């Protein structure tokens, strides 16, 4: 089954008003089960809007969004996806443990199962021993890991991430990238990931979706095949070739497929 | 959090309530204010004694202290009466203020309208309602004073709570939407806890106001069993040090209310102590 299907989707904000903005136009995109897809593009290209459409946080002006074989609205009601943003957005009055438990709580999961699942998720992101801390006691990187644990807590088949590592330092960022890939691979989760960073997009993705602004649209889809990622990947020629391809696509002077590899 | 808070209405609710432990331990937090206080009292005593200031202008602290000790039983009894009035009025006013804020936050239109209206009403000298209220009830009734306290308390609690309830972190809103949470669930799990710092800012302001209102409301008649009546009668009898002794009693009572509010704030929001 495909994880996400967008068919001729467009989004117009403030339609019919003087400040009308066409955020997205003519978007067709399919994300396969277990696939990692990155959205990249300049500010205002609608990549966050696209992510929010998939999450049914906003509705398309035209076209259809299908998540896990259902309309986006139904998928949201069924908690078919987990979501994480650039800010961790933890609830400061809840302990780390209870932050991760929240989506389970709203699903009506039993207390015992909630606790076990939260522990399991926190161990997965390496924060098991901080379960009873409050968010204010954690560093930015740790808070972001809690947010990812929370997004994964319901074992969603789909993970939506809006620049989740954008505010982190380079070291933390690379470590979390590896952690995220490991988690997605071990759980079979499909991921749509928004980023500004070309290396990050190439490192993480099976496919990089390149977008451009005014109006926001998909200009090119760059497939990336680097095999299992690791420290060596970041130094490999294939990695740099991928970066060059994406950079060219962003500039709009795409080379014919196969010309550089 | 993206909070745009009017500094006049909600005095920085995000600031830590109690200053963090400073370098040098608790001594540094206690000793300097104590030294300044004692020095101030000595200066006051000296100025009054050396300058031969008449007691109706300003009695010496020693004279006030002596009167306080002599009338300690009356101070205690009247203090309890005023404290009871202030507490009941505070609880009623805070409860009504909080409920009203929750209703106003639930309906966008009410929220827009109510803040300027509340600010305008708050500018009324509410204490001045005391004589009118006194005439509405029996002269043996405690209700008028408690009503004045409740009205005075209502505004800071309402305005602060409403601000807190209306400002939801956009990320929290998106998250709760992604969990398909209903409006009431969002209020219970997100709006109320996020508003607590604002509510307590309002309560801290209200706790001192409650005591002031309870004491001053007695100046305008009604049942005369609290601190206010003793201050007026002592002043009318030219017993100025005694009047000041009761003022001191009111001051202590106000401080107790404030400290209890502060303590409650720390107990209710453990995450703000970290």
Automatic annotation (TrEMBL), chain A:
Keywords: ATP-binding, Nucleotide-binding, Transport. Residues 4-238 form the ABC transporter domain. SMART domains: AAA. InterPro entries: AAA+_ATPase (IPR003593), ABC_transporter-like_ATP-bd (IPR003439), ABC_transporter-like_CS (IPR017871), ABC_transporter_ATP-bind (IPR050166), P-loop_NTPase (IPR027417). One of its GO terms (molecular function) is ATP hydrolysis activity. PANTHER family: ALIPHATIC SULFONATES IMPORT ATP-BINDING PROTEIN SSUB, TAURINE IMPORT ATP-BINDING PROTEIN-RELATED. This is NitT/TauT family transport system ATP-binding protein.
Automatic annotation (TrEMBL), chain B:
The keyword Glycosyltransferase does not apply. Pfam families: BPD_transp_1. It is found in: Cell membrane. Residues 75-265 form the ABC transmembrane type-1 domain. The keyword Cell membrane applies. The chain crosses the membrane at residues 26-44, 86-109, 115-135, 147-165, 206-223, 243-264. GO terms for cellular component: plasma membrane. One of its GO terms (biological process) is transmembrane transport. Belongs to the binding-protein-dependent transport system permease family. This is NitT/TauT family transport system permease protein.
